[in-house]
Specification:
Blueprint (H helix, E strand, L loop, with lengths): L24 E8 L3 H12 L4 E4 L15 E2 L7 H8 L1 H21 L11 E7 L5 H14 L5 E3 L1 H7 L8 E9 L2 H15 L2 E3 L6 E3 L5 E4 L4 E9 L10 H4 L3 E10 L4 H6 L5 E4 L5 E5 L3 E5 L13 H11 L8 E11 L6 E6 L2 E5 L5 H18 L17 H52 L20 H4 L9 H8 L3
Parallel strand pairs: 1-2, 1-10, 2-7, 4-12, 10-17
Antiparallel strand pairs: 3-6, 4-6, 5-6, 8-9, 9-10, 11-14, 11-15, 12-13, 13-14, 16-17
Helix pairs in contact: 1-6, 1-10, 2-3, 3-10
Keywords: Oxidoreductase
Protein name: FAD-dependent oxidoreductase
GO molecular function: oxidoreductase activity
Length: 494
């Protein structure tokens, strides 16, 4: 298995902050959660001179931030059309611009010089399971004209030339999107935050929080901490002290598998080097390490052993790419993301000095990086761009009932997608057969038109029996006296 997907190990900059908070501490900002959002807040605030402590209940990058496919592109889990309908075109443009800033932030940070082994690759392709050419054109116009995003529309032939499967139709290509090694990125952020002066404490769960007063109080199992600002960046793992907040998120697990090396046959089937995601959010994959395939499974609202999903992902790969068949799986990993009811992240100030950054859903890397910037600048500079997220309030996600409903909706959505895809492929096949029939008919007509015309055979005229005519008719109508032999014949004497 390549180093990119090996289990987390301590690097040269990782050791000193891998310790539990065991003494009381006063800081300007306390961040709860050492994922991408929390570490970005810590890094940006420390760079600007604030004293920062990060409290992590387990270890840096243990959940979704360190277990994802690493695709970075603009946007949110909420479709762009729904975003416009919810907040209007002007606010939607500003929110979209923020998501682009988040992607740009990750690109600037994820360099080989700053984070060796980050393995950045360019380009992301969103493909459709059904034939939606007209909808594609409309969406391309919205993205390029209204939201100033660089995109390209790919026709069916080009998609299938790059991806050797008949299951995909049109595509939208994002040339400015990119992929990175997510685990390298999260540990690189932690190292940069540490060098900037932030203090990171692992194995330090938060027992209770008192957000009242100018100096807020945080209690851990072995120490107490006071801070002017608290940033809650623990996503679905905030725990009992913040149960009401964590219950506004639906926990969604997604598991990904990395295949064994597949050799040259992988490149013969999949020529596209960026990441690929289908428009229904079911499959997400990319080539890693030159000849391995990393593939994310459908989502589930229940946690399970990752290895359980190896056969599921094997079947998905064989279904989408029959030429690859049943590929051997090297490793399976996964993590839980928080999904909000309105599909937009929770970014903002809950009360004076108490901030939240969570609920990033499928677009985790760009939105979590953006949230870290927005909150750090709001605390230190008084910016108020976080208010753009005010229309997306904290909404209870339904608890166990919501998880069951989410699971059933996911199953129904996957079934509907499969049926729609099968119908689209059937119609495509029917159109292809009709074109072949019409081509054969046209060729037959052409061949018939190049031969010399054949004269049809002339049928013999039918011979009509002649009835005896009167003598006058035979001799011009004048009476002729019967001859002597004629008389003998009539009289029977001859």
């Amino acid at each position: 298995m390549p180093e990119t997907f090996s289990s987390a190990t301590n690097g040269p900059d990782d050791g000193p902050f891998r310790s539990r908070l065991s003494f009381d501490l006063d800081v300007d900002i306390c961040v709860v959660g050492a994922g991408v959002a929390g570490l970005t807040v810590a890094l940006e605030a420390a760079r600007r001179g604030a004293s920062v402590a990060v409290l992590e209940g387990r270890h840096v990058g243990w959940n979704a931030s360190g277990h994802q496919l690493g695709t970075v592109m603009p946007g949110y889990s909420l479709p762009i059309g729904d975003l416009i309908e919810r907040v209007g075109i002007e606010d939607a443009r500003e929110l979209w611009a923020l998501s682009k800033e988040g992607a740009d932030y990750v690109r600037a940070a994820a360099t080989e010089e700053a984070m060796p082994g980050i393995a950045l690759t360019e380009g992301a392709l969103e493909v459709s399971n059904v034939d939606v050419g007209e909808a594609l054109i409309s969406r391309l116009q919205t993205l390029s004209e209204d939201f100033e995003t660089e995109v390209e529309g790919w026709q069916v032939d080009r998609v299938r030339d790059q991806l050797g499967t008949a299951r995909y139709f049109h595509g939208i290509y994002y040339p400015r999107a990119f992929q990175i090694d997510g685990r390298k990125y999260i540990h690189g952020l932690a190292a940069q935050a540490k060098r900037a002066g932030a203090r990171i404490f692992e194995d330090t769960p938060v027992v209770s929080i008192d957000p009242s007063g100018i100096r807020k109080r945080i209690v851990t199992p072995s120490a107490r901490l006071r801070a002017s600002h608290i940033v809650l960046a623990g996503n679905v793992h905030l725990g009992a002290p913040l149960r009401r907040l964590s219950e506004t998120l639906l926990p969604v697990w997604r598991y990904a598998a990395v295949t064994e090396p597949l050799g040259e046959r992988l490149g013969e089937v999949i020529a596209f080097k960026g990441s690929v995601a289908d428009s229904d959010g079911i499959d997400h994959f990319r080539i890693v390490g030159g000849d391995r395939l990393m593939w994310a499974s459908p989502e589930t609202t229940w946690e399970a052993r990752p290895r359980r999903f190896a056969p599921v992902i094997q079947r998905r790969i064989a279904t989408i790419f029959p030429r690859l068949g049943k590929v051997p799986i090297s490793d399976v990993f996964g993590g839980a993301v928080g999904v909000t009811v309105h599909a937009m992240p929770q970014i903002g100030q809950l009360r004076k000095g108490l901030w939240v950054a969570s609920g990033f859903g499928r677009h985790g890397l760009n939105t979590s990086a953006m949230a870290g910037q927005v909150i750090a600048r709001s605390i230190l500079w008084g910016e108020d761009r976080w208010k753009l997220f005010s229309p997306f309030e904290l909404v209870w996600a339904g608890g166990t009932t919501g998880r069951v409903a989410g699971h059933l909706i996911g199953l129904w959505g996957r079934g509907q997608s499969a049926a729609a895809g099968a119908l689209a492929r059937f119609r495509e096949g029917a159109r292809a057969r009709e074109r072949v029939r019409e081509a054969r008919l046209a060729e037959a007509n052409r061949q018939a038109g190049t031969r010399p015309p054949r004269r049809p055979p002339v049928a013999p005229r039918p011979v009509r029996p002649q009835s005896p005519r009167p003598a006058e008719a035979r001799d011009g109508g004048m009476p002729v006296a019967p001859s002597q032999e004629s008389e003998k014949i009539r009289d029977g004497s001859v």
